[in-house]
Amino acid sequence: MKSSDLSQLDQLFRQFCSKEWRDLARKNTVMLSFKPGETIFKEGQKVESMYMIEKGRVKVFSNYTKEIEVVIRFATNGQTLGHRGLGDDGIFPVSAEALSETSVNILPLNIFEDLLRNNNEFCYYFMMFVAEELRRTERQQKNLLNMTVKQRVAKAVKMNVEAFGFTKEDPQLLSFTITRKDISSLANTTYESTVRSLSELQSEKVIKIVGKKLKVTNLEKLCEITSC
To answer: Which CATH number covers residue 185?
Structure first.
């Protein structure tokens, strides 16, 4: 079987786990489909499984209050969900919601923990993934303190680029544009300030607004604005 024929999770198992553990993990994995807007897991829910996106786009967020939603990250094909719930209390501190038609591999938590204990390379891979996400979160928090509103909105657009990329047909058009509400959440600003900042970025020919979608017409300038 070619690697291109394998699922995202199978490829990960094949790369980092022994055959014995690959077979056990595969046997205990199920794949579920979610429609846009459907919840994959919810903040406060008991952690019973780990998740890996087979295909689709997902938003990970936390509700600080009923009115305030804070976006933590976006995830797509081959990326892990649910790891923030690992720990003594075993409760998810965040929610995950499908943004598009999404298929997710779901592995029971006890099997996942056994994989970590018995496959050193898999454990190291997962540890480095978590460490990188922690660094990304810390940078994001620092940005909120040091950037202007326009810079934070530009940073949210750049995160959109990094998460989902561009279409094959148009290398400037985002393959999936997050909502203005989610941009506001990432930038920690109001909806009105987000719309105003996007208009400023368009007037500076950094982006182009096409209905609800965005084009990035000058990626280099976008990086300059966000101090990359």
So the answer is: 1.10.10.10
We report the CATH number of the domain holding residue 136 as: 2.60.120.10
- How does DSSP assign 61-117, residue by residue? EEESSSS-EEEEEEEETT-EESGGG-SSS-B-SSEEEESSSEEEEEEEHHHHHHHHH
Say what the pLDDT of residue 88 is. 80
Residues 64-78 as b/e (b if ≥16 CB within 10 A, e otherwise) read eeeeebebbbbbbee
- Measured CA to CA in angstroms, residue 163 lies from 22, 151, 188 at distances of 28, 18, 19
DSSP string covering 125-193: HHHHHHHHHHHHHHHHHHHHHHS-HHHHHHHHHHHHHHHH-B-SS-TTBBSSPPPHHHHHHHHTS-HHH
> Over the stretch 58-82, which tens digit does the pLDDT of each residue have?
999 998 777 788 899 999 998 999 9
pTM listed for this prediction: 0.86
Nearby residues of 45 by Cβ (< 8 Å), 6 or more positions away: 91, 92
**Regions of the chain where pLDDT drops below 50:** 1-6
Q: What is the pLDDT of residue 228?
A: 53
